[in-house]
Amino acid sequence: MQGIAIGTIAIVYGEGDDSPGLQGLGTLIVLGMIALGVRTIRRRGQGGPKAKLSPLEYEVDADKND
Questions:
Q1: How far is CA 2 from CA 8, 29, 58, 65, in A?
Q2: Measured at the alpha carbon of residue 17, what is the angle toward residues 15 and 22, in degrees to the nearest 5?
Q3: pLDDT at position 63, please?
Q4: Residues 66, 62: Cα–Cα separation, whole Å
Q5: What does the angle CA 10 – CA 13 – CA 15 come to, to the nearest 5 degrees?
Q6: CA 35/CA 53 separation, integer angstroms
Q7: Cβ pair 9, 29 in contact under 8 A
Q8: What gap in Å lies between CA 63 and CA 45, rounded to an integer?
Q9: pLDDT, tens digit, for every residue of 20-36?
Q10: Separation between Cα atoms, residue 56 and residue 66, nearest integer Å
């Protein structure tokens, strides 16, 4: 979250200073932080932190569906 804010500040400051390099760097930072966030969410799975069940919990859940 802080990386997105830093990238946004770099884009705004680069625009005011008329610096295309700083704007590009800010854009790369923002896009990189978004990509890391998406990767983290996808690795956790659809259920978020609750998706990590122990093998015992899988067996209990399987019994409930029968």
A1: 10, 10, 37, 43
A2: 65
A3: 52
A4: 7
A5: 105
A6: 26
A7: no
A8: 22
A9: 899 999 999 999 999 99
A10: 16
Range of the domain at 51: 2-65
Residues 6+ apart with CB under 8 A from 19: 13
- Is the overall model pTM greater than 0.70, yes or no? no
* Total H helices, total E strands in the chain: 3, 0
Cβ atoms of 14 and 20 closer than 8 Å: yes
Residues 6+ apart with CB under 8 A from 43: none
Structurally, how many domains does the chain consist of?
1
Digit-coded pLDDT (tens) for 56-66 = 555 555 555 55
Q: What span, in angstroms and rounded, lies between the C-alpha atoms of 11 and 22?
A: 6
**Does residue 53 carry a pLDDT above 90?**
no
CA atoms within 13 A on the CB side of 7: 15
